[in-house]
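Action item from last week, closing it out:
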Amino acid sequence: MRVLHTIGEMGTGGAESLVVELVTRGPDVGWVSQVASSGGRREDELGPTGLARFHRVPLSRRRPGGLWRAVGATRAAVREADPDVVLAHNVGVTVATWLAVRSLRRRTPIATVFHGVAAGDYRAAALALSAAPGAVIAVSGVIRDRLTAAGLRRHVPIVISNAVTAPLLPDRATARRELDLAADAPVALCAARMVEQKRHDVLIRAWARVRPDAVLLLAGDGPLRGDVERQVAQLGLTGRVRVLGARSDMPRLLAAADVCTLSSDWEGLPVALLEAMACGRPVVATAVDGVAEVLRHGGGELVPPGDDEALGRALDGLLGDPAAALAAGEAARAVIAEHYDPAVMMRRYDDLLRSLARLPDPRPAVTPGMADEETTRQ
């Protein structure tokens, strides 16, 4: 099956990580993958694998006339790729993809993966997706419910939770030595773009309440990086908070960390959270959307969004109790294994896309009496 992914960019976000996971696992289910985007680090990582062809499309540009340039470039990508089905990631990209496909003689089916938006944007998202063809996939049950409540018509969103393959971690002592971290220092890691949604300001205020020997690693870049660095200096946290910028060594950072944290105002189902938990790292995060859905099974602590006091207290408590952190980390690993298996995710995507493209399933039929893996996990 020929699958074309359309996505704004191939940077470091959760949607991009999902594309990488789907492309990487695609050969297991007979996919031939192509990606249309404005490019980025994830594309650079995928390129040498030979698992996908890439098409340059300015889908991430928000300028006058930008939509129509994106539509034209997407039309050319669809024509060249000749896919059986298109998987469009998020709303704006879906609109551009839909308009591009409508102008072609062959109406390729489209499925939208909805990764979530800010609370005030759900109504507009529901309106746009109600007009779109194909299927709508929500990355968590909470996201599905919010989209439906916002007025989504025509579609019943299908929940396919994000899932990850746990990265192979280096030795902890080696990772800490390479990062110039003391062997016994309590370390927390936040891997997130520096944008308003992620509320680094709340996390930094919370960190001022955490034990003074602890170190916070901030991995990620974005338009608010200067504000983050100024706040760190103003609160006297220089040395206790390390602003690392965009990183390509997440396994090393995860190996060095005791706890991972997110202070977002909203989330779909963040892949960074799943990766941390798959590696056995407990999570302290705000009780929003897909984050709360994951951690309800265990593996960390939830705090109210915007509450730096509660966040600081939870981080300090877990960092100060290695036995509790270890137990929460093992629970986190178990949650991922039971509920966020990437093989199950891949099968669900494959089943849906083949049904849209009206293509047969190439896998052997399940013999009567065998339990369906997907069914048993629901």
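Closing note: The chain has two domains: 2-163+341-377, 172-339.
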